[in-house]
Each structure stands twice: as C-alpha cells, then as structure tokens.
Amino acid sequence: xxxxxxxxxxxxxxxxxxxxxxxxxxxxxxxxxxxxxxxxxxxxxxxxxxxxxxxxxxxxxxxxxxxxxxxxx
Length: 73
Prior knowledge:
5 strands; 1 helix; three-stranded antiparallel beta sheet; mainly beta
C-alpha cells in the first residue's frame, strides 16, 4: 500500500500564498481575521490571503501593509 504525501502550506496573518501545485493544502487559522481564497480554473493557479484587520488602528501601524484589507488588497 502506498502513502500519499500531500504538502501543507500555512498562511500566517498578513501574508499570502499562491501556487499552481496540485495535491496541496493551504491553511489559515482564522479567529477574527478574514481569509480570501481564489482559484483560476483555466490557469490552474490558486491562492489564499490572510487579512488581520480592515485597516490600521492608528497611522503608526502602517508599517506592514499586508496586515490590512485597506492597503493589502
């Protein structure tokens, strides 16, 4: 009996992952965060974006733009 090895990619908050690899699991551990998944069936490419907050709480939090939907999208 053969064992199937499937790759697992974990997407942390404020980051994204895009791939055309088959047999791939992409995970994000979401609490109050938002995960956006998209797949292009023609190109065979998909991805997941893990958003922390809609926008920075104050102007000094603008250093990591991928954390926020307002700047990351």
